[in-house]
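Table S2 (continued). Query chain:
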Amino acid sequence: MSVKEAHGAGPALLPTAVARFLEHEQRAGTVAADAPIDGVAASIAGACYLRAFLEQFYGPDHPQQPMTEFAASIMATVLPALPHTPPRPPPATDSQPHRRRSAVGVTAEPRPRW
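Corresponding output:
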């Protein structure tokens, strides 16, 4: 029995999870419909796998760039492949919804009526 079969886990789950997230963003309109989702997901996962492999191979004292810099560099690499589609503005209306003042004086949106 494989690890995946025994535990429902394995390295193939990361690119699949990233791809599902990006597909959700496509449906939301924040990622272009023709963006290369599978390629971007594989790139992110591959970079993470390499970093984890090097840490396991050389030990935690092996010098690597700080995690925040690593993540930023990976995202700077893959984001150009995911052109941002700006969300459409809401339709124009003649009147704005009534805003209420909270106890601390901050303007708040009206509460939904369910």
